Amino acid sequence: MTPHELARGLFRVLETGDPALAADVVHDRFANREAAVAPAACSLSGPAGVLASSAWLRSAYEDLRLPIDAMAENGDRVWVRLRMQGRHTGPFVRYRDGRLDQAVPPTGREIDCEQIHVLDLHEGKVVRHEAVRDDVTMLQQLGVFPPSPSVALRMAAWKVGGRAARAAEEVTRRAAEAASSVCRRAARGREENAGDQAVRDAGSRERSAG
Q1: CB 30 within 8 A of CB 128
Q2: For residue 186, which of 56, 15, 51, 43 has the smallest C-alpha distance?
């Protein structure tokens, strides 16, 4: 794939959670510098971390879209300017050191904010990611900053009533489950390879016996 195709593939993985595409475009040593505010699974290296990040974002935003406005490349580095768009239909949970920091209850609001991403490439795949995101605009669109009375009241009620903690646990579970799909896919691949090898070995024995 070209550098631009790899970049488009990475953001398509975030939009869809496609494990096959993740395996094609994400390096096994992939590192995401922006994972500090996400569930712990998002800090995992390789495709697992990207799939966990996809699950985290898609748990909050229905019809998540990351349309690319512009790209530039220089050797093994690609710069991407895009927009993050979607409808806030699930809790948007932010973390600090792997623990709940803030949970925004679903508002039904649309988000549309600009982001700049920097991708490093290695061995034909994306190996590192960092970003400059307009999170302030996103929080403004959700009514969190500055806080609208209705959103502030719901966030407080969620925190006091334990719904924020339960939402964080569920989002953490979804992210971990998405990350584990990499292991399941690898296990299926090993089983298929073992089966193919057994068939080849049987054929060899039959030819030898004949």
Answers
A1: yes
A2: 51
Neighbours of 132 (CB within 10 A): 12
pLDDT in tens, 125-178: 999 999 998 889 999 999 998 989 999 999 999 999 999 999 999 999 999 999
Residue 133: beta bridge partners? Answer: 115
Which residue positions in the chain have pLDDT lower than 50? 187, 190, 194-199
Taking the CB of residue 106, how many other CB atoms lie within 10 A of it? Answer: 17
155 contact partners, CB below 8 Å, separation of at least 6: 102, 103, 104, 105, 144, 147, 164
Return the structure tokens found at 116: 């700049």
DSSP strands (E only) in 13-91: 26-32, 61-65, 68-74, 77-88
